[in-house]
């Protein structure tokens, strides 16, 4: 009744932006990501008959309140699926996802938790079922079940049974690099979940966003297959800008960008104008991730580090999917 | 055969963004502006039989090339309208529109030129005809014919005969203030004309932009009538953000914003959170204009001046329409 799993976070190249079902976490559009080797969570789940409630430790500290509730509610799904509604567990998670780099630890966190808990309670090993389960903890986490390039199929069923991730290409298909730019001022990231909801409900541009996704997906998948970096970078950057544009047309409008966000975007554009192929992508926060190919590693690092307001650069390569330790 | 006219520039609160006819300068959507007393052009047009071509002096310097051609081509319309195709003129213009403040001098410039030339050549004084004429020199200039709050009706006719400005409220209706924030780095403003065209032709969000205008206009006109500053400010700011969002969804995407643009936007939002009602608007460039009411003059000035990258603050009040000197 005990298992340990490791899962990496992922960065969306085609963004997940908007839910059609808040409770089952069903998305409005397909998304596509790259799993990253640099940022991960390791989680041990140990079901013990002596327990009458789950005990959740994050980085060796007991967690209570809303965060404990979210983990426990997620374990309820697994207990139910296994026909063991009264099985409670010790959960020990260790996050190797620096908050300052602007990655949500929920992606690696829920993928590792789902994998460890499923195995510990004796559910059959099935990646598709694991992805569906993980999705219900945190939407984008369902992509972290797989390594490399991963697409989350939005599905059409009301119960979410066809909304899961599939691998497009494994991690060793293409040695891309992703530099996560750590900002000096750790300003509070606001609105990420609520902002998505507000955008779906009020943005004048939201339906055009959803309609724009199939073309992006088709093109970026061709680019990944051909290892055409310019193509993949251009599509990812344009998709990110289009996603952020939807927030500017929400009511009331809002933006995740800060002045340093713009400074990094300008730096990436300048690098391109100087012949260094680099592209940026930005999730629901001020942090910027820069995509490039290995031969430009040094230039990218040095240039980004010189931007005022940048504290550090954390580089990742394509990472593996869920593994058991 | 000689006349002198003065015209002020204007700031759009509901943006003109996209042409349906490039040659006649017919817009895709109605727009609404405030004429500003602080920035203006004075132009003298003197038709002389001795001339065989127009002579254009801007700030006492003879202008040749493309800029001369644009002025001369505009005078062709006036010569033709007056039945005097062979009448050429000395044109002396003085611009009181600092480029660094991010105002296009074309609005005050073409309004003053159209007024002075029309009167000099003997066309009847008619503000509506003057607005139609001015529009063909520079679209947003047609709003500068009037003072105070001005709406540019897009019209429906192919010949542009119903596309002109009308006054919504005179300058003395409401003492609003507009602070033009002058940036230290006079980075080249790119793409303003071409950017509009690219957005109309390629932006996924463009049609939703056009569809969003009637609601904005109705609401802002009610706000102006009621002198409801929060309402007017919120609508103007949201309209500006929505306009800029269309550029992020163009192909390829682009943005007029620089990091200092974001820093000023953040400062205005912070002022609001501290109880100082202030709103921003941004045209097709990096410069920001801040709207506020007179009682907050000192706070606004001091706060904006402290933003890194800000060189100066130029304050305007509602200004008059075209006048003859």
Automatic annotation (TrEMBL), chains A, B:
Residues 7-165 form the Diphosphomevalonate decarboxylase-like N-terminal domain. One of its GO terms (molecular function) is diphosphomevalonate decarboxylase activity. One of its GO terms (biological process) is isopentenyl diphosphate biosynthetic process, mevalonate pathway. Its EC number is 4.1.1.33. Keywords: ATP-binding, Lipid biosynthesis, Lipid metabolism, Lyase, Nucleotide-binding. It holds the Pfam family MDD_C. Residues 181-306 form the Mvd1 C-terminal domain. InterPro entries: GHMP_kinase_C_sf, Mev_decarb, Mev_diP_decarb, MVD-like_N, Mvd1_C, Ribosomal_Su5_D2-typ_SF, Ribsml_uS5_D2-typ_fold_subgr. GO terms for cellular component: cytosol. It comes from the Bacteria. Belongs to the diphosphomevalonate decarboxylase family. This is diphosphomevalonate decarboxylase. It comes from Lentibacillus persicus.
């Amino acid at each position: 009744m005990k298992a340990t799993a490791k899962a990496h976070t992922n960065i969306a190249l085609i963004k997940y932006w908007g839910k059609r079902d808040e409770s089952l976490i069903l998305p409005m559009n397909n998304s596509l990501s790259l799993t990253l080797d640099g940022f991960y969570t390791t989680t041990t789940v140990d079901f013990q008959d002596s327990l009458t409630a789950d005990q959740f430790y994050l980085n060796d500290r007991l967690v209570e309140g809303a965060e404990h509730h979210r983990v426990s509610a997620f374990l309820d799904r697994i207990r139910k699926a296994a026909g063991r509604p009264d099985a409670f567990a010790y959960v020990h998670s260790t996050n190797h996802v620096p908050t300052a780099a602007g990655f949500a630890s929920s992606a690696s966190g829920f993928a590792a938790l789902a994998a460890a808990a499923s195995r510990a309670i004796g559910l059959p090993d099935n990646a598709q079922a694991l992805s569906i389960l993980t999705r219900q903890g945190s939407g984008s986490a369902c992509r972290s079940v797989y390594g490399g390039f991963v697409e989350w199929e939005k599905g059409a069923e009301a119960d979410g049974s066809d909304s899961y991730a599939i691998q497009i290409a494994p991690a060793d298909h293409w040695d891309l690099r992703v530099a996560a730019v750590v900002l000096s001022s750790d300003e509070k990231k606001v609105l990420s979940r609520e902002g998505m909801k507000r955008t779906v409900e009020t943005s004048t541009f939201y339906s055009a966003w959803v309609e724009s996704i199939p073309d992006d997906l088709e093109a970026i998948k061709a680019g990944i297959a051909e290892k055409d970096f310019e193509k993949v970078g251009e599509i990812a950057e344009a998709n990110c800008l289009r996603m952020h544009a939807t927030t500017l047309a929400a009511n009331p409008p809002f933006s995740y960008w800060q002045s340093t966000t713009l400074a990094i975007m300008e730096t990436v554009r300048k690098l391109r104008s100087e012949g260094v192929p680099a592209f940026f992508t930005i999730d629901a926060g001020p942090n910027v991730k820069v995509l490039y190919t290995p031969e430009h590693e040094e230039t990218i690092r040095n240039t980004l580090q010189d931007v005022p307001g940048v504290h550090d650069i954390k580089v990742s390569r394509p990472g593996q999917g869920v593994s058991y330790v």
